[in-house]
Amino acid sequence: MITLSNIQVTFETGSQLVTAVQDVSLHVDAGDVYGIVGYSGAGKSTLVRVINLLQRPTAGSVEVNGQDLLALQPKELRSARKKIGMIFQHFNLMNSRTIYDNVDYPLKSSKLSKSERDQKVKQLLELVGLSDKLNAYPSQLSGGQKQRVAIARALANDPEILLCDEATSALDPKTTLSILELLKKLNQTLGLTIVIITHEMQVVKEICNKVAVMEAGRIVEQGDIVSIFSRPQNTLTRDFINTATHIDQTLEKLTLHPSLVHLKDNDMLCKISYIGDSTSEPVISELTARYRVKTNILFANVEILQQTPIGNLIVVMSGSASDLKEALHYLQAAQVNVEIIDSGLLQNSKVGDPA
Ligand SMILES: Nc1ncnc2c1ncn2[C@@H]1O[C@H](COP(=O)(O)OP(=O)(O)OP(=O)(O)O)[C@@H](O)[C@H]1O
């Protein structure tokens, strides 16, 4: 549905050149919910605006639904753009017009009759759950309701693609979830292809089937969500994932308060992660039954991403050195990833160190 190839966007500010997007290529299939995640200034907004040519790239090509957008004449581009809806962080509604008029506005240039337009506006507002707000003004709505109006307006011309530029960043967590649920419903019922840019991996986790991670204008990692969450390759990707799973915060607390974890010489503080089938294996109980290794679970979390379970645990494993070694081999063979964070030997030698 969308193929960006070797996109470069450079801005000239006074005598300075800012390269906002650098050699980015990505491919979005029809029906994807594609997340682009990155910290502020990474180039996400610039990149997403390239998809509908709100931002013309300095170099590269933009193909949407089989059309080379950069080759289109202004009139053709206007009609291609109608098939690409967009929503924004601050909703961009017209405050002096009613909700009805906001949604009706993009239909003014359509070929629909007045009664067809009326029917369409009402249908759209029903789809987003706002049938009772036709005559209200934006100032009378909550942030979540305003975003629903913006979504209805973006769908007025039956687009195939919806671009979401930080669409939930101004919303509280509960409202964010309800908007993401609505987007998921639109993806599933209308077959809408969605591109979401966000700085929150939590958003990606809720709704996306694919994700690209951006840093300093480049994509540092991209792929399907399960592979990225279970085997992140890039440090930045790991950082983003850890913020969404809370595992790093827990580890930080444990490291800041060593009294929470009393490690004896043969104890190991480990982070254990697994994906898919391993969750049904009673791996933890096997450690005790087969290898005489006791496991104290300090933190456990299972996420279901695209119907695939992904688990993360922080545990203290205790046993003899040889039993621990065998247990680690067993976990490795069971496709369970183990990262040793600290061990009793290490911790106790640190305690004994002269200041
Ligand atoms: N019109 C412009 N003129 C000059 N520089 C720009 C322009 N638009 C963006 N930039 C610069 O390009 C870089 C990327 O900005 P962009 O807004 O795309 O990042 P972002 O990842 O979307 O960040 P945020 O989440 O804060 O919006 C930044 O250094 C920004 O200052």
TrEMBL record:
SMART domains for this protein: AAA, NIL
Span of domain ABC transporter: 2-241
Gene3D superfamilies in the cross-refs: 3.30.70.260, P-loop containing nucleotide triphosphate hydrolases
Pfam families: ABC_tran (PF00005), NIL (PF09383)
Single Gene Ontology MF annotation: ATP binding
Coiled-coil ranges (or none): none
A GO BP annotation: amino acid transport
Domain of life: Bacteria
GO cellular component, one term: plasma membrane
Keyword Transferase: no
Alphabetically ordered keywords of this record: Amino-acid transport, ATP-binding, Cell membrane, Membrane, Nucleotide-binding, Translocase, Transport
Family the UniProt entry places it in: Belongs to the ABC transporter superfamily.
Name of the molecule in the record: Methionine ABC transporter ATP-binding protein
Source organism per UniProt: Paenibacillus lutimineralis
